[in-house]
Structures are given as C-alpha cells and as structure tokens.
Amino acid sequence: MKSNEFSITFLGVSAASINPFSTTSTCLVEAGNTKIMVDVGIGALRQLHKMHVNPGEIDAVLITHWHFDHYAGLPSLLKSRKRNSLLSVYGPKLSIAARIYLVGLLHSKHACFELVQGNFCKDCGDIHLETVPTVHGIVSFGWVLAERFPREKQGRRRIVVSGDTRPAQTIIDAAKKADLLVHEATYSEKHANEAYNHEHSTVAEAATLASGACVGALALVHIAHQNSKLGALKEAEKIFPQVLAPSPLDRIDIDALPADTNKENGGWGQVRMVKYPIRKKCEIVNHHPGLWCHRK
C-alpha cells in the first residue's frame, strides 16, 4: 500500500448464519504500512488468503464484543502466524463462552490480550485507535481508526466501525464528520421491533445516525440474510445521500481532502468502493458516479 492510502476491506459482512461458507463480520483497515483487523469472524483467514495477505502482516486485532460470529476466526488466525510473531488483541472483558473457546490462546506467548475500556486510545503504527461504548446487551465497543500522519493542509481521515449496537449517541459523537461510518443494519424498518428486542439497528436508524453525524459516507454491514443489499440501499438512500453496501472482499478507498473542506452536510466524502476480485483493472459499474468500481 502507498504511504498516502487509507482503506478498509470487508473480509466478511454477514450477520450470524447457519451457512458455514458465510463469512461474518471482519474488516481490514490499512494505512501506510499498518494493517489492523476489526473483529475476526468465521472464515476470516480464508479471506486473507484470497487477498494474498500474509497473516503475519496483521499488526493488531480489535474486537467489538465477544459474540461468536465476531471472534470465531481468531484461533486460526493466531495459529497461522510465525511462532516468533506476537499479535496484540484489544477488546472488552471476555465472555465465559469466549474464555472457553479461546482457552488455549489466552496465555499464549503468540498473543497479547489487552482489556479496553470506554476511554481507551492508542497509537498503532500509522493508525490512531479509540473505543466508542455501544449498546448491545453485553459490554461492547465501536472503534475509531484515524490516520496518524495526514499530509500538510489535508484533514485527518477517520473510519468509525460501530460493531453490533442499537443507535447510540456515543456513535454520533465519535463519528462526527468522519470520512466513513461502517454501521450495522441487521433489520429493515418493518422489523424495527426485532431490532429493538435484539439490540441491533435497522437500515433507517443507521442512515439517520449517519445524517446526524454529518459523515462523509455510510457503509451498511451485518445485514440479515432475509434482507437484500439492494433493498437496504434503497431504504437508506431516502435518508442519507452516500450509501454503500459492500460484499465480502470489497474495498473502500478514502481520498484525502483539504482541511478546510465543508463538512456541514452529510455525504461529502470522497470514497470509492472497489469490487472483488481486487488487484486488477478497475471499471465503473454502479449508479453512484465515481463511487463503486468493479475489478475484472
């Protein structure tokens, strides 16, 4: 990756599913020479291999919460790395189920588990990290990932990843004028009661939150299998102008903007979604001009 690039690749975007080939929530954020994963869902290692990314290149893992579909791929990721390679894993207090599942790794010399709180912040290579408390029935955090070294006269690019949550003021505050908000949208508006009962968000709630935070662009993830991405896009675009619904291994590149860019209204972000398979010639194929690309 070039030193001035800032991107997020969606290794998995699915909500929990009985389909063993459905890759669940996992993102890879890259800035300069730094690679950080947010959650490590089912099939995460397989997706890294498809990208030709060496697991040993991952600098840190950020866990939003300890539900199985967000950490199931962690053991295989750790076991695939070189034995002298230490991986830092940051997340909230482990659930009992997570402790049982990860029992062989918690005191491993190949992994360092660090408990985070609501005021956690840390510099990791070329990326600055911060936690955002969220609402999901167990201790959970969203994550802010910002480039540490913006170029002169350019604003600092930021990505906010919500994790699973009800709409939360903390997310609005943390995502204020961020370049990209990655927010869960498990349910459509007609299933708003289920979203409330299971402490998830609807598509409309995610779009409303993005509008309130004046973010540059919104990416919808964790869409339930009974809902279509196209339906989610149409629902969200009634509320917010620049919406993306990535599929597994799609990448969003975020362009740097001048520091004095007007960000008073949402949808100002200069982002491009590059469809998988990546690393080949790019061709525009979507109705969002300059926004979605397909690599043949």
Radius of gyration: 18 Å
| Sheet with most strands | 10 strands, mixed
Assign the structural class, choosing from mainly alpha, mainly beta, alpha/beta, alpha+beta, or little secondary structure: alpha/beta
N-to-C terminal Cα separation, in Å?
20 Å
CATH class: Alpha Beta
As a percent range, the share of helical residues equals 10-25%
- CATH superfamily caption: Ribonuclease Z/Hydroxyacylglutathione hydrolase-like
How would you describe the oligomerization state of the chains in this entry? single chain
Order of helices and strands: EEEHEHEHEEEEEHEHHEHEEEEE
Which regions have little confidence, pLDDT < 50, spanning 5+ residues? 279-296
| CATH architecture name | 4-Layer Sandwich
Strand order of the largest sheet: 6-5-4-3-2-1-14-15-17-16
Number of domains: 1
Total helix count?
7
CATH topology: Metallo-beta-lactamase, Chain A
Q: Estimate the global geometry from the Cα principal axes.
A: globular
Tally of DSSP β-strands: 17
Secondary structure elements and their pairing?
Layout: E1 6-12, E2 26-31, E3 34-38, H1 44-50, E4 60-62, H2 74-79, E5 87-91, H3 96-101, E6 111-115, E7 121-124, E8 127-133, E9 141-147, E10 158-161, H4 169-175, E11 180-184, H5 192-198, H6 203-213, E12 218-221, H7 229-237, E13 243-244, E14 251-254, E15 271-275, E16 282-284, E17 292-295
Parallel strand pairs: 3-4, 4-5, 5-6, 10-11, 11-12, 12-13, 15-17
Antiparallel strand pairs: 1-2, 1-14, 2-3, 7-8, 8-9, 9-10, 14-15, 16-17
Helix pairs in contact: 4-6, 6-7
